[in-house]
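sorry for the late reply, my laptop died twice this morning and i had to redo everyting from scratch. anyway the thing you sent over, i finally got around to it. pasting the sequence first so we're on the same page, its 127 residues, then the predicted structure underneath. double check i copied it right bc i was rushing
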Amino acid sequence: MKANLTDPESRIIKARKGYVQGYNGQAMVCCDTQVIVAQDLRQEQVDHHLLAPMLEQCEKQAGERPALCIMDSGYWSEANAALKDERTELLIAVGSSAAIEGRKHTGERTNATQKGRGSPNAEEAGH
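ok and here's the structure:
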């Protein structure tokens, strides 16, 4: 086991191109003012359980929940979808654009897409 002596609270987190020693940072920004209305720094790399705390923090710091919240696929879960209410509309991606388009994250086409069997939902997803 390796330890980071300069920042012992940081963790090794999987990134797009390998691993990094660091944190998982979250930020919620008002689209109109570009002001950060909620923020968080975590040691774990997954995001799906962080939506409810971010909405609560936004309400505490900004005085209200956002009317619209747009998130990447890391936030997708049935529990997060259920957080939608009359105050906040949630738009959560259900997969990465690479997965929806049938590509690997490297930009290469997968065998299924090369054979014409891409995702049937790609148009519905807006891609």
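Residues 11-94 form one domain.
thats about all i looked at so far, will dig more tmrw
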